[in-house]
Each structure stands twice: as C-alpha cells, then as structure tokens.
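Hey,
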Amino acid sequence: MRKTPVLAAALATAAALTLTACGGAGKDSGSGSAVASVPTQRNATVLDRPFAKPELVLKDTKGEEYDLVKETRGHPTLLYFGYTNCPDACPFTMSNIDLALRKLPQAEREKLRVVFVTSDPGQDTPSRLGSWLRQQNPSFTGLTGDFDTIQAGARTLGIYLDKPKKDKSGTWVSTHGTQVLAFLPKDDRAHVLFSKDTTAEEYAEALPKIIEGRTP
C-alpha cells in the first residue's frame, strides 16, 4: 500500500482522533501519536505504527478482575472507551458493531472480542455497565475501575479522556475519544482505527479480515 507523506498522514490521524462529550460539541485532540497510511475505507485507517495493547487490569460486569492483555491474547479484539449515559456516539458505535457481527458466521463471531471500557467509572458500576451492554450485545465485555488507570491506558493509544463532570442540567458528561481500535491476533497490536462514523456495513466488510489477522 502506498504511504502518504508524513504531514498528510498526521492530519489524517488527527482527524480520526475526535473527541465528543456525547451530545456536546466535538473537538480535535490534535495529538495523534501514530502515523497513518491511506484510509482503506471512508472511515477506517490502517496504522503504520501499530499500538500495543494497554496493560489494563480492571473489573468486568460481574465485579471480577479482568486483565485485558491476558484475556484477549491471541484474539482479534475491538476496543472502545465510552460510557453508558452517552446519548449518541457510544450506543451508535456498539449498535453498528453488533449489526455487523450478526452478518458473520458463528465461528467468526466466537473468535472476536469486543471490549467496552467506561470513561465514567464513577457512574458506571459493574451492574449498570452489564445491564447496558446486554441491550447492545451480551457477548460484549464491559470494564470499569479507577479513572486514572483507565485514562492512562487510553493515553497509550492516543485516546483522550477527560474526567467526567456535571453539565448545567446536572447530567454527568464524559468527553472522550470516539475511535475504535482493532487489534490483530497475530501480534496483539492495534493495526486499524475506525472513526465514530463507521457504518455497520463497513464493519461487516472489515471484520472478517481482522478476524483472520489481516488489515482491511
């Protein structure tokens, strides 16, 4: 695949690393740490410098310890940071991934790990997170824990998380990066970045390749 010049690649990555307050005004982080190649789809980008999987040890929806690196090792994995009170980006993203999975053979679905890490652990208890994810797809893994730990793990992927705060109406709002990172099973590194605008059809087209260990 032909690589873009460094400047153009950096701009492509910066455009993908978009923040949202899940209903508030979005803004660009402008601090992507990976240089990206030409997007393979309208909303998917293959990274020249794949990200290592963050060493996060958190609590799953049953309140049990979950070691992200250990539990997903050797599995194609989609990783997303968001929160259950999000009115738009988070449920939209999870729904599109679910719709895409429904189009895949059962054997392929069983190989894929979809992990949702809350950006608002103060509100998203294991029980609340579990209830919300069951409405999306029961196979999705939800993780919660200490905010500083979660924020540090997201930062290693170039994903910005701001500490949750209440808006004027008293609603808790979490400003977070909305990209989905796809880790390949061959090296457990994130080779593909999906933007928040990725459609179910685009996921359905890309996921079989990712499950096989290839980039789209």
